[in-house]
Every structure is written in structure tokens, then in C-alpha cells.
Design goal:
Elements lengths: L2 H8 L19 H13 L5 E7 L9 H7 L4 E6 L9 H10 L5 E3 L8 H15 L12 E6 L6 H13 L21 E4 L4 E4 L12 H9 L5 H4 L1 H14 L4 H5 L9 H12 L2 E8 L2 E8 L1 H13 L10
Helix pairs in contact: 9-12, 11-12
């Protein structure tokens, strides 16, 4: 099919996503509430707050409870997973964050063995701390930072990257691909020798009530909310809608489609066939039961979502 025909068809794709009668997923387990209280109790011994967030959603999903209860110390926003984000509008992102009062921002890719941006963190934090009064901690030459953020944005990865960069040491905090790995505020973890800097790792904490379905879906796609609480089917559909809206059509080549599609069932069927993801189901007929082999749409949806999370569908900015 010719390019102009493909683009003309794409012009008829959805411009608004229909969430139907779904509700915003609420995910505020007991360990999150406990963790937030521990953070509030520990903040008096902290010199600077490091808030980690996903660079693909620099505005969506940042927990307002952090600003309300922990924003009493110098604050640095670290937008992690920059390797997965389309940063062509980085300047505009920084400008918009500044309008919201966020002036110190650092983009990082903490999974790289050597990330030059991670090297910038200690000098930035040192300057932030030394430019403001430390009150009762003035006589203490060691620095203590608290790492906060919603689940699965790379808080533990940042701690490990800092240790790797500044101390040439291995992991100091457990890392996982699902939200909820860190369950409690841990003991202090040293990440630098000159100056001596310790970090407090904390559990990922979502707001008790997520602002909107749109925000909740973006958080879910970035792995912040457990998939089954939202539903892989609607997550895959919202991902397809987002990719088409952003004119990111790399999924067409990846799954051998003839052209971009706005029909998630058609896309998932093609993914299932290409990857051999099928399931056997029993069908009741008038002459007895028969077993059919049909596409496994749930498995196909999961593969589609996982490809996005790994950056295999191209660089994307959901906000």
C-alpha cells in the first residue's frame, strides 16, 4: 500500500480514547502507607530529597504527597530511563517543570555501566545542600539523601549506579522488574566517599487516589501499577492508541503488519500468530464438544506491552 494511502487511513484513527465505565486503579497497599510515615519521620535527618520518576511520563503520576509532606529539604528531580524516552522536546519539558517550581532536574539511564549524567549527581546535590542552611546538621560533614518515587521507576537502580560510579562497588539495594520490590525504608547505604554520602532507599509510594484514568494508564504502561489490576487488554489498546497518536509506527514492522492499525484485536491476533501464542479451548456444539486452537490475546497483549517497556517499539514520550 502506498505511503499516502497509509497516512490517509491513519488520519481516521481515534483522537480520544474511550475508557468506558472503568474506574481508576487504586493501589495503596499497607507497606506504602507505612513507608510514607517512615519517610516523614526520617526527613529531619535528611539533607536533600532525590525524587526519581520515569522520563517517559515527566509530569504524570508524580505523587503530590511527596510535595506536601517531604518538600522541606533541597529537592532534585531525577528523570530515569531516559534511554526509553523521546527527548526531542527536552527543553520544553524542562521549561514546563520549571513553571511548576521544579528547577533542578537530571536525566539518567541508571542501567548503563557508565552514565555521564549519574556522575553529575553528587556535584549537583553538594551544591544544593551547601547553598542552603542545614540548621541542626550544620556541624555534620556527612550528607544524607532520601530517595523517593512511585514504584518501579529505578530508585534502587540509581543507588546501585551511584555506588558503581563513586565507590566502584556492586549492588547496595535489590532491583526488580515489577513494582513493590522495596517494602520498607532501609538502613543507610553509602554511595560516595568524598564527600561521604549515604542514601535512604524507600518503598515506591503511589497516591491513595490517582488523578485520572489517563494518568493511571500511563503509570500502568510504565510498570508502576501491577498489570492485572488494570488489565492487559485495555493497556495494550491504550498503547496502540498512544503510538498511533504520536505517529510511532515501528510496531508495524516488528509484527509484520501490512499497515498501521487502530484495531487492537486485529493487532493482537497478528502478534499471536507471528509469535505462535495460541491456546486450546473447548467449544460446545450440537454434535458434541470439539477442541479449537485460537490466538492467545492476553499473551499477545503482554508481549506488546513488554516490547514498549524495553524500548523495542522506539523512543516514546507518553506525556
Amino acid at each position: 500500500m502506498r505511503l499516502h494511502q497509509i497516512l490517509r487511513n491513519a488520519a481516521n484513527f481515534r483522537t480520544v480514547f474511550d475508557f468506558g465505565d472503568r474506574e481508576v486503579a487504586h493501589w495503596f497497599p499497607r507497606h506504602m502507607a507505612k513507608g510514607l510515615k517512615q519517610m516523614q519521620a526520617s526527613v529531619k535527618n535528611v539533607d536533600c530529597i532525590l525524587e526519581i520518576h520515569d522520563a517517559r511520563i515527566p509530569f504524570s503520576g508524580r505523587n503530590p504527597l511527596f510535595q506536601d509532606s517531604l518538600d522541606v529539604r533541597p529537592h532534585l528531580l531525577v528523570l530515569n530511563k531516559m534511554d526509553l524516552a523521546d527527548l526531542s522536546a527536552k527543553h520544553m519539558i524542562l521549561k514546563q517543570l520549571e513553571r511548576h517550581g521544579v528547577k533542578k532536574v537530571l536525566f539518567t539511564d541508571c542501567l548503563r555501566q557508565r552514565d555521564d549524567n549519574v556522575k553529575k549527581l553528587v556535584p549537583m546535590v553538594t551544591e544544593l545542600i551547601e547553598s542552603q542552611p542545614r540548621f541542626h546538621r550544620e556541624e555534620n560533614t556527612n550528607f544524607c539523601l532520601m530517595v523517593i518515587g512511585v514504584p518501579n521507576v529505578g530508585k534502587s537502580s540509581l543507588i546501585n549506579a551511584l555506588r558503581r560510579t563513586n565507590l566502584k562497588k556492586g549492588r547496595g539495594s535489590k532491583v526488580g522488574g515489577e513494582p513493590g520490590i522495596t517494602k520498607a525504608v532501609l538502613t543507610r547505604i553509602q554511595v560516595c566517599e568524598r564527600p561521604i554520602i549515604h542514601l535512604l532507599d524507600t518503598p515506591g509510594v503511589l497516591p491513595p487516589k490517582i488523578q485520572s484514568l489517563e494518568t493511571g494508564m500511563k503509570l500502568a504502561l510504565c510498570g508502576t501499577i501491577l498489570d492485572h489490576l488494570v488489565g492487559e487488554d485495555i493497556m495494550a489498546d491504550y498503547l496502540l492508541f498512544s503510538l498511533n497518536r504520536l505517529e510511532k509506527y515501528s510496531y508495524v514492522e516488528r509484527y509484520d503488519l501490512r499497515e498501521p492499525s487502530d484495531d487492537i484485536q486485529q493487532v493482537l491476533k497478528r502478534i499471536a500468530v507471528k509469535l505462535g501464542k495460541t491456546q486450546r479451548v473447548k467449544a460446545i456444539t450440537g454434535v458434541g464438544n470439539i477442541t479449537l486452537t485460537v490466538p492467545n490475546y492476553t499473551a499477545a497483549a503482554y508481549d506488546f506491552i513488554r516490547a514498549f517497556r524495553k524500548g523495542e517499539l522506539g523512543l516514546v514520550m507518553l506525556d
